[in-house]
UniProtKB/TrEMBL annotation:
Family the UniProt entry places it in: Belongs to the DadA oxidoreductase family.
PANTHER family the record matches: D-AMINO ACID DEHYDROGENASE, SARCOSINE DEHYDROGENASE-RELATED
Organism field: Symbiodinium necroappetens
The name this protein goes by in its record: DadA2 protein
Gene behind the chain: dadA2
Gene Ontology MF term list: D-amino-acid dehydrogenase activity
Keywords noted in UniProt: Signal
Gene Ontology, cellular component aspect: cytoplasm; plasma membrane
A biological process term (GO) from this entry: D-alanine catabolic process
Length: 414
């Protein structure tokens, strides 16, 4: 079949790869000028089944409420007049029970583990390089009470087969010497030995080249505007440069999926959640971390990509804007300096802000809507890099009529 994939972020390109491996002719369409130019451009880079907890948790409503008058909250709610924000927020709050959080976490963990296994298969088959670092990730806790809570919560993930270890401050520093200045400030850490990191943009760019070498066609600078329909099927996608006909279509447009899907009678519960990142040159400094991780009490993530250090933070519910000022990064940079005073050249920050396509549950949307030949692969939230190869493989399974390798409960479009 000829299949058109809409979107060339990490999810769209991974989907193109999986479909091509199944023998399909693939065309990818994106409004940007190259792959991974939007959400996948400068994200945290953590491939982290060990951090697959649902954001919609019993503590989330209090954090969102405090964010109305405090600027130091990891989750920030910025009210506006957009009805979609209020509909999404109501659905999110309904997921913030202990029972729903546990269920959503289990579903995320299962998908993340499966996706990581497929990532390794894709890398082996394609030869793509992306500053990957294996050896685990560290989740750091400064306050004893938060560390105790984390230890109690670990079972949500270990019950799904994810390996997690509790570490004292001393063992944490022994594993990551760059954290030595913080030894007396750490209550402990959780170590996920199977987690890893890597530059999602480099991965996507490399995989897109591998797809092109296999015959895939990428149409950049082309904006999707709608579809030409015939009864219960999509005949062609309509762009600002004409029509592209195909046998099947995959919608992987991230935060812009709801607007396009609405033309097909589908209401996607996806809303953009803004995140911020800073990339620093390591510049020969010998105190840069070897392992990535998260400062959990500040919700600041970090990962080293070769001679670069990436720092990410914040989840801001503030609409579709991606603008930013240096002041927006001051808190996360202060946390990074505290973690790694000599970890990078703080005089040369490269700033970025991007939008995560979040569902209230934190799980992506797969499967078909009312049109038999249009499939959804969108709504991956803050774990798109971790989940991308998995949902790509599952989408290829659904198109081929194969039984998916993992259960799809909670993942299929309703």
């Amino acid at each position: 079949m000829h299949i058109v994939v809409l979107g060339s972020g990490v999810v769209g390109v991974a989907t193109a790869w999986s479909l091509q491996r199944d023998g399909h002719a693939v065309t990818v369409i994106d409004r940007a000028e190259e792959p991974a130019a939007f959400t996948s451009f400068a994200n945290a880079g953590l491939v982290a089944p060990g951090h697959a907890y649902a954001w919609s948790s019993p503590g989330a409503p209090r954090m969102l409420l405090r964010s109305l008058w405090r600027g130091d909250q990891a989750l920030r709610f910025r009210p506006n007049l957009d009805p979609a924000l209020w509909r999404w927020t109501w659905k999110f709050l309904r997921q913030c029970t202990a029972e729903r959080a546990a269920l959503n976490t289990a579903r995320k963990a299962r998908l993340c583990l499966y996706s990581q296994s497929l990532l390794h298969e894709v890398v082996a088959a394609s030869g793509v390089t992306y500053d990957a670092r294996n050896g685990g990730l560290l989740y750091l806790y400064r306050r004893p009470e938060s560390f105790t809570g984390a230890l109690e919560r670990m079972r949500l993930l270990t019950d799904q087969g994810i390996a997690l270890e509790s570490l004292t401050a001393g063992r944490t520093v022994a594993l990551e010497p760059a954290l030595a200045p913080l030894r007396d400030s750490l209550a402990g850490a959780i170590f996920a030995p199977g987690d890893e990191s890597g530059d999602a943009r480099l991965f996507t760019l490399g995989l897109a080249k591998a797809c092109e070498a296999g015959g895939a066609v990428f149409r950049f600078g082309e904006t999707v505007q709608g579809f030409r329909l015939d009864g219960g099927a999509v005949q062609a996608v309509v762009t600002d440069k004409g029509e592209v006909a195909a046998d099947a279509f995959v919608l992987a447009l991230g935060v812009y999926s709801p607007q396009i899907a609405r033309q097909l009678g589908a209401r996607l519960p996806i809303y953009p959640v803004k995140g911020y990142s800073v990339t620093l040159p390591v510049a020969g400094r010998n105190r840069a971390p070897s392992l990535g991780g998260v400062d959990e009490d500040n919700l600041v993530a970090y990962a080293r990509f070769g001679e670069r250090l990436r720092i990410t933070a914040t989840a801001e519910f503030a609409g579709y804007g991606t603008g930013h000022r240096p002041a927006d990064f001051s808190r996360m940079l202060a946390v990074a300096r505290d973690l790694f005073p000599q970890g990078g050249d703080y005089r040369q920050p490269s700033y970025w802000a991007g939008l995560r396509p979040m569902t209230p549950e934190g799980t992506p949307l797969l499967g078909r809507g009312r049109h038999a030949n249009l499939y959804f692969n969108t709504g991956h939230g803050h774990m798109g890099w971790t989940m991308a190869c998995g949902t790509a493989g599952l989408t290829a399974d659904l198109i081929a009529g194969r039984k998916p390798a993992i259960p799809l409960d909670g993942l299929l479009l309703q």
